[in-house]
Each structure stands twice: as C-alpha cells, then as structure tokens.
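[Discussion] Sanity-checking designs against the backbone

I'm trying to build intuition for which residues belong where. Below is a structure token string of 844 positions. I'd appreciate it if someone posts a full sequence so I can compare it with mine line by line.
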C-alpha cells in the first residue's frame, strides 16, 4: 500500500502564520521495495472551496520545499491544500491546511502600546470588543518589543511562553498568529497582554550591554485580531483607547530573576464585567523598527515536569530542593501563608560545600542578584493557595534553595523550544548510550528561540557553539526552522559590513572579539548544515549576500592566506576551567576554518547557480600557505609558533578540512593516533577540534583509538563527567567547570551517528546517503540509529556475532524511505539500494 504522511507547509504541520510564498512537503510510504515518485500535483483552495492554485501534473520526484506558484494569498486566511502523487507502486493523496500571516504588511492601524508611564513592573494592557455571532475564522496576531503573555477572556491564546521570538529588533520583529476561532462567541470579549522585558527592555547592567542596545526601550505590544463570519470581517487592534495597569510582577530580568507581589494581583483583568475606567490610557509607543516577519521557529513551551528528588532542611526557614537532573526552566510553586510572607528561590546547577545551590555570578557579569525569584504572598486564607511561576525569565538549575516561613510545594517545569525528537541512537556500550542521552538533554536545555550557550549564565547565541553543534541538533531534534532563523540572525549582526558578531542576535556588545573566523564561520557552515540535513536551499539564498561579502572581507584581512583569531580551540583540557585558548598557535585553527569557509562558499555558489572559481582559488591559496607555514613533513606534524608540545587540534582540523596534501594525510593521522596512545587513550582538544577528532581517527584507520577515547572514564573525557555524576554536559573537561548545561563539547554525537551507526548524507536532504559503520571491528559489537530525513526515517541496525552469526560475521539491516537512495558499505560489500528494508551480511 502507498500512502502520504508528514505533510508540511513551511516545514510545519498545519501551521498558523505562514509567509507569503509557502513551501510544501510530504513523505511517501510504501510496502513495495524501491518505490519512486513519478509525478505530483498540488492544489490550494480557500475556505469557500475555490481553487487559488493548481500546479498541474508535474513529472518529477521532488517532494521537499515545493514553492507555492499561484496568485498572492490573502492575509490571515485559512487555506486547504491537497497533494496527489503517482508512484511506481501506485497513487496516493492527502490534504492539510495552513493559515497565512500578515502577508500584505497591512496591520489595519494597529499601534504599538505599552504602560502609560515607564515602570519596572510588568504592565497589563487591556481592550474589550463585541462579537455579534460565532465566527467562521478568527486570527490574533501578536508582536512585541520584549515578551508578551496574551490572554483572551482570561485564558491563554496558545501554549507558548517567552514569546514572540528574540531578534535584532532594528532589523526584524517577529510576530506570532493564534487561531482563536473556537474561543469566540457572540458577546463581549476582552484581550489582555502582560508585558515582560526580555532582551528588549532589560534594565540591569550586564556584560553584553543589553541594557543599552540600540533598540532598547520599555516593553510594548501590537495586536491585530481579524474575525470573519457570515456578516463580513471585523478588525480589533491595539490603539490609544486601550487601558494599562501595573501587574503583580514587579520586576523581571532574564538573568536576575523575577519578583511577584501577590497583594498586587489584578483580579478580573480578563473579565468583561470588570470596571477598568480608573485604569490610565496606554502609551502609544514607537515600537521596534525591524521589519515584521512571522515567527518561523517553533514556540517555546513547557515540555514537561519533574517532581523533587530530595529535600534537605538547612535551618529554620531554609531548604534545598533537588531534582534528578540539570534542566532549563523554572519551578511552579503552591504556597500558603500570611499577607507579606516572602518566599525566595535561589537556583543553581551544583551545590556549594555548605549544601546551598551555586547561584552566584562568579565572573561579575551582572549587577545585583542572579538566578533568584522572590514572591510576596497575600493572605491565602482569603484567596486560596498561591500558584505561581515566572513568566518572563528562565533558569538553569538542578537545585533550588527556598527561604520562606514554610516550605511551599514545588515542581520543576522543563522549558525549551518545541523540538520533537527525530533521531535515535544506541549501541552495545552503555556509557556511549548515556553520553548520547546527556547530549540531547543538554541541547534541549539550550533551545530558547535560538541555540544558547548556557541557560544559567549567558543565554546568548554564541556562533561558534551553534556552528559545532548544528549537526547534532538537526539529527536529533526538529531544529530546522530554529537554525534557519538563527542563520539570518548571524547575517543581520553584520549590519551590512565586515564580519558577523560572535553572538547573534547582537545588541551592541562593546567587547571586540575580531578577528574570529573560527566563530564567524557559522555564517556559512550553519546554513550549509541546514541545507545538507534538510535540503533547504532558501536558507542558503537568504544568507548568501552577507556570507559572500563577509568571506571576501576575511580573505582580504588574511595576508598570504594565513588567518588570525582571538578564539582558538576553546576550553582544551589545559586551559583554565573558566574558559580560554589553549597554549598553541591559534593561526592554525583560524586558517583551517578560513579554508573550510571557502570550500563551503564554493558549494553554496554551485547550489545557487553562481561561479565557484573565486572561492576555490582562495581555498587553494590558503592551503598552500598553511602547508608551507605549519606542516612539518619530517615529524608528520602540524606545528605552530608557541605550541606547548604536540597539539592534537592542529592535526585534527587539518585532516577534517582536507587541508594537507593527499600523501601527508595518513602520516598526520598516524601521528595523531600515536599521541592519543601516548596520553593513555585520551583526547586533548577543545570545542573546535573535539567535533572532528573521532571521525578523523576512524576515517584514517584508527577506529580502535576513537572507541578508546569515546569510552574513556578518566580526565579528560565524557566518561569522566559521567563517573562524577553528570546529568548533562559541561562547559569544560575539568570538574571545576562553571556551567553544567553546555553542549559544545558533546559533538561526539556526530561520530555516534556518522561512524558508529554509520549514517551520512551524500546529497542535500539525504536524497543520497551512505550507510557505512566504521567501528565494526572494534570493541563495539552492535549499534542502531535513525535520522528523520525530509523523505522519512532512514534507519540502520548492525551486529557482529550473536544468534545465527559466526563470531566475525556482520549483519546489517537498514530501512530506506521513498525518495532516498543509499549506498551500503560493509567489509568487502558495497550495494546501492532504494526504498524498503534491506539486510546484508559480511565478515569483519
């Protein structure tokens, strides 16, 4: 049987709030081997059933990112689309829906509004309106400078939190669209929005200068509600007739925490019967200058909860509540008490020697307090228990110190971007399985509209971190749209000149990290990884003007083809636990990444139909300069000025990016493997080279060394963290590591998928793939993995020995989705297969 599944519009199922020219995708399932799509036909209809676009029958096998080709779509309108395909195994059809955003850029007069006067409190703005009859459709558009919690008649309009998305507000302002059709009936209704500061209106001093960003202002919101029914269209907008009042959240800060005074709660703010005539009128605000765009990344949501694992009483009125692992989010409390009672919550990932959570700002990044929420109770005998959690901040924590007259009931809320798990991995080694799970957990803890570096300390989109982590994000989790959006943030950080910034979005941080091609490379390498994993060509076209111009700038300031950088192989084992560059020549990493960028630029140019000669020539110049400057053929070593002995990272990057001549590569890899053995089967790399060391060793015939490193349990190693009780990944190899929620050393996961399971894309979107486990002759005896390609799940399972097999015999079973061709490679066996389930055997 042939069927269609996973229908998407703009890479989401039945989305609300698409762009003006959406793209369509689908997956084909079939019980026949080697099924192929022969033709396709897409039809789009409006709510009345009229056809607005019929693609006609198109004879090809394309089922990913098929662009809409009809007349301009109406704004804020629902459409139904259908797809019919003819395959070698028969015909199949299916249908879905989508709702457009403000695709005509007409906000119908909606104003930016905020509190009547500047206030540190989170204001609540309110407007009421009448509806004559239940509508056929109703869509609410929400844009904010900062964060907005929006309710209709006292109920949240959706399940999102901490939105809309964070951007460089001078370039882009994101908006979300909520379908509120089911929430409206005839009668009076009330819209309210409680406004938080986020990165837009931060008041506290911090080292990244968010409080003085060019777009800095008090929080504001712009709402547009379009209601359609039998009597036509009704529009409700924010304007100067709305009312505002300070809410019970008396201060909010992404780093410091949140204050809430229950005695100041605004009862009935969302009720039509509440008299608000004494509320002052709102202030009409300037609002962000950035172009309005629909929020393309999924929303941030509460993804789960954890109950306390332990409660330790420290003394009168002081407790430490512990949870099973490090998470990002907040705690929900239920508290009883007298009016004026104070509850203070201090959040930390680790415990100090005295048993209190580490909630300190060790580096002095912020003014005042850090990771602390404070709640003042009203008289709960009259109002009932207070149920509270913050709305405009989140914390990285495992432990919470509670200071209160009595211990409230607590549970942890896990908060991150909605990113369903789309990959899986396991193998015969329990330690590697644990490391994999910790990696995925830690990535999730750092997805908050952008990939952040730590949920506790910085919450910033460090470009080098996201660059090394992009592959494992995309293979484990549905992060396509998040990383595509963040790629644009990196491009925007240039503001049309020079290099991108090292954090994106960027708010004018005055510290100059330039030059840093190692981190700036994210502008090319992240969108390329999105394209490779998801087949998204538009992400390349969107960043290419900035990427191309930046790379020319970097080449021009790299005389003779040798580049410089302020950021080398960060947090190698012999650096300070607080971070830093290792004792080695950082020009080697800088030049290797310059070459990688040039090679990637050549690939992007080809994809976009442009000449690649400029980039290939630049790569060749830098390769020649690198070899002449750093390659010691006699020692088979890549050596720099000021190196502290042999540096693994130099060889790893030179081999990973094919910098060395063909005849030098195996000797360099052999020398690298010898150093690993000399160090007792340990790596000695930081964030840049750790990503590549195990794949490089495996590629050049040293899979045993790669496995030995991967399963090591003494310093420095992932296993050492596990031995020390880690429940997530750390920022540094050393036990003194500051952050315990940092993913950039977790790139062993690339190797787990690519070499242990053996899954690698050969063409964008995995349209061609290789299945070639590289560790079948090592201590590992079996593995399985799967990645969700745009065409469906590509999975593999292999084992050596066991039931029905000789001790040295290998069996591999793979399942290939329709639309993918896979090359399966085992010792002495190479076979190309199409869709279906295939089993091969060989001898190790």
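Best answer:
Here's mine. Compare freely.
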């Amino acid at each position: 049987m042939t069927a269609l599944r996973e229908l998407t519009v703009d890479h989401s199922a039945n989305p609300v709030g698409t762009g003006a020219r959406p793209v369509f995708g689908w997956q084909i399932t079939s019980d026949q081997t080697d099924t192929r799509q022969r033709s396709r036909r897409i039809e789009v209809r409006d709510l009345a059933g009229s056809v607005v676009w019929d693609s006609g029958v198109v004879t090809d096998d394309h089922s990913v990112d098929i662009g809409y080709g009809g007349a301009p779509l109406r704004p804020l309108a629902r459409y139904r689309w259908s797809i019919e395909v003819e395959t070698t195994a028969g015909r199949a059809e299916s249908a879905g829906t989508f709702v457009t955003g403000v695709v005509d850029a007409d906000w119908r007069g909606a104003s930016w509004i905020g509190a009547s006067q500047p206030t540190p409190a989170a204001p609540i703005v309110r407007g009421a309106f009448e509806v004559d009859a239940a509508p056929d459709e109703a869509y609410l558009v929400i844009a904010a400078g900062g964060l907005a919690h929006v309710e209709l008649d006292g109920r949240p309009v959706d399940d999102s939190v901490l939105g809309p998305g964070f951007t460089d507000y001078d370039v882009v302002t994101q908006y979300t669209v909520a379908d509120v059709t089911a929430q409206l009936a005839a009668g009076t209704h009330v819209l309210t929005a409680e406004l938080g500061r986020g990165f837009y209106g931060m008041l506290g001093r911090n080292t990244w200068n968010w409080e003085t960003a060019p777009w800095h202002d008090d929080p504001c919101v712009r709402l547009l509600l379009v209601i359609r029914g039998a009597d036509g269209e009704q529009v409700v907008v924010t304007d100067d007739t709305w009312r505002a009042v300070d809410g019970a959240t008396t201060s909010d800060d992404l780093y410091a925490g949140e204050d809430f005074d229950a005695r100041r709660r605004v009862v009935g703010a969302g009720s039509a019967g509440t008299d608000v005539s004494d509320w002052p009128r709102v202030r009409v605000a300037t609002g962000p200058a950035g172009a309005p765009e629909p929020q393309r990344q999924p929303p941030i949501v509460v993804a789960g909860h954890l109950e306390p694992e332990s409660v330790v009483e420290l003394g009168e009125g002081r407790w430490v509540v512990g949870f099973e692992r490090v998470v990002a989010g907040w705690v929900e409390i239920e508290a009883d008490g007298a009016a004026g009672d104070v509850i203070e919550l201090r959040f930390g990932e680790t415990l100090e020697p005295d048993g209190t959570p580490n909630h300190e700002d060790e580096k002095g990044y912020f003014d005042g307090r850090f990771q602390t929420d404070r709640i003042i109770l009203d008289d709960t005998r009259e109002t009932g228990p207070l149920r509270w959690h913050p709305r405009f901040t989140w914390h990285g924590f495992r432990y919470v110190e509670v200071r209160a007259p009595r211990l409230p009931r607590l549970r942890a809320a896990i908060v991150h971007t909605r990113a369903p798990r789309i990959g899986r991995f396991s193998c015969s080694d329990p330690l590697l399985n644990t490391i994999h799970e910790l990696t995925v957990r830690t990535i999730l803890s750092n997805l908050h509209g952008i990939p952040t570096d730590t949920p506790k300390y910085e919450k910033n989109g460090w470009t080098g971190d996201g660059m090394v982590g992009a592959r494992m994000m995309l293979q484990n989790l549905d992060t396509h749209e998040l990383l595509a959006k963040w790629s644009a943030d990196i491009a925007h950080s240039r503001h049309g000149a020079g290099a991108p910034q090292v954090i994106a979005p960027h708010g004018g941080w005055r510290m100059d990290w330039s030059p840093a091609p190692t981190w700036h490379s994210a502008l090319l390498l992240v969108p390329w990884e999105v394209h490779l994993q998801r087949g998204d060509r538009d992400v390349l076209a969107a960043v290419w003007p900035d990427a191309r111009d930046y790379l020319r700038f970097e080449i021009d300031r790299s005389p003779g083809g040798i580049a410089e950088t302020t950021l080398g192989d960060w947090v190698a084992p012999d650096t300070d636990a607080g971070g830093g560059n290792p004792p080695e020549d950082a020009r080697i990493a800088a030049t290797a990444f310059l070459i990688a960028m040039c090679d990637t630029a050549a690939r992007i140019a080809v994809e976009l139909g442009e000449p690649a000669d400029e980039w290939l020539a630049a790569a060749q110049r830098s390769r020649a300069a690198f070899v002449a400057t750093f390659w010691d053929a006699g020692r088979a070593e890549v050596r720099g000025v000021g190196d502290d002995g042999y540096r693994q990272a130099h060889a790893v990057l030179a081999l990973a990016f094919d910098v060395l001549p063909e005849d030098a590569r195996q000797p360099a890899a052999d020398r690298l493997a010898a150093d690993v053995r000399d160090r007792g089967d340990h790596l000695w790399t930081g964030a840049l080279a750790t990503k590549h060391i195990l794949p490089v060793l495996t590629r050049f015939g040293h899979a045993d060394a790669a496995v030995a490193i991967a399963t090591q349990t003494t310093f420095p190693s992932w296993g050492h963290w596990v031995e020390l009780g880690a429940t997530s990944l750390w920022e540094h190899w050393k036990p003194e590591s500051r952050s315990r929620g940092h993913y950039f050393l977790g790139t062993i996961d690339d190797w787990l998928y690519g070499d242990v399971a053996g899954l690698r894309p050969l063409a964008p979107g995995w349209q061609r793939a290789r299945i070639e486990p590289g560790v079948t002759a090592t201590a590992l005896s079996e593995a399985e993995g799967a990645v969700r390609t745009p065409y469906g799940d590509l999975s593999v399972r292999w084992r050596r020995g066991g039931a029905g097999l000789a001790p040295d015999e290998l069996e591999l079973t793979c399942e290939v989705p329709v639309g993918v061709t896979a090359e399966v490679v085992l010792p002495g066996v190479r076979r190309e297969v199409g869709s279906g389930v295939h089993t091969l055997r060989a001898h190790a």
